[in-house]
Amino acid sequence: MKLKTLSLAVGCTLFAAMPLRVALAADEPIQPVPPVKQINLALVELGKKLYFDPRLSKSGFISCNSCHNLSMGGTDNIPTSIGDHWQQGPINAPTVLNSSMNLAQFWDGRAADLQAQAGGPIANPGEMAFSHTLAVHVLESIPQYMREFKQAFGTDRINIDEVTAAIAEFEKTLVTPNSRFDKWLLGDKQALNDTELAGYQLFKNSGCTACHNGPAVGGNSFQKMGIVEPYKGNGVEGRSAVTGKDADRFNFKVPTLRNVELTYPYFHDGAANTLGEAVDTMGRIQLGRKFSADETASIVAFLKTLTGDQPTFLMPILPPSSDNTPRPTPFAAK
């Protein structure tokens, strides 16, 4: 198989082109998005096809990209996602962008890594509604996939671990470096205006960086939603569903704030439609603080500087189905 060169904005140009200046990042709670390292390009190309392939779902209509749309900040911009037979999901789809930096996957952290996460939606009856065994059988009915899996893994059969490993390898490439804030961290004093800088200082001084820190500006801890004031959400219990501990009730993985202007609506239930609303709510229930309209506007201005270069690549041409491959049945009885 002749692999196409993957054209991804992985940040190498940025780091190579920066003047030799003392970086500010070491003194800040947020660090620049690092470039992609140590990826297997054969797996990336295979995983990219699988990510966009709806044949991994029971209906043949839903792909990973359905809920984590790479044209929409790696999410779907609706409060809770749409699953098999138009089922309404219980929780907001977190962005897949920069997800390799998370300490765990899903809002409740039930998947340890990207590979463990990739298999979950395929077999979830409310999402892609398939089984791992049937998904593998579909892939094995497609001759080009059989060739590509053999070239990538050296085996004559496909298994679900290979499927999820390939998807995870592709997802590792979905990082978004080169935001204006990263440029500022790396010494470009002109990258942010006065309002944005004031918003960042307020963001830090108010205590937001206690949870939203590191390269992903979040994603590295679990925190209770509603520390100062209870959060009146949709009743999803959060981390306690995984640990069985009542102390973890309403604890959720802190979301990344990278590209946050693209990933509305906000929170695990998608209840906040705008960044201003999200800032106001978090200030009140997490910090016990009521931000003024000007303060909220300055924090929102700062948050918009976290939008980085979006992943760019040639859209994959999916292998054609064989005569034995099941055809899509999106309108079939459940």
Can you describe this structure?
This protein is globular. By secondary structure, the protein is mainly alpha-helical. The chain has helices at residues 12-17, 41-52, 64-67, 114-123, 132-140, 143-153, 160-172, 180-185, 194-205, 240-243, 275-287, 293-304; strands at residues 222-224, 251-253. The chain has a two-stranded antiparallel sheet. Residues 1-23 have low confidence and may be disordered. The chain contains 12 helices and 2 strands, in the order αααααααααβαβαα.
With strands numbered from the N-terminus, the spatial order across the biggest sheet is 1-2
Number of helices: 12
User: CATH superfamily of the largest domain, please?
Assistant: Cytochrome c-like domain
> What is the quaternary state of this protein?
single chain
Morphology:
globular
Average pLDDT, to the nearest integer?
92
CATH class of the largest domain: Mainly Alpha
| Count of separate structural domains | 2
Features:
12 helices; Cytochrome Bc1 Complex, Chain D, domain 2; single chain; globular; 2 domains; mainly alpha; 334 residues
Secondary structure blueprint with pairings:
Elements: H1 12-17, H2 41-52, H3 64-67, H4 114-123, H5 132-140, H6 143-153, H7 160-172, H8 180-185, H9 194-205, E1 222-224, H10 240-243, E2 251-253, H11 275-287, H12 293-304
Antiparallel strand pairs: 1-2
Helix pairs in contact: 2-7, 4-7, 9-12, 11-12
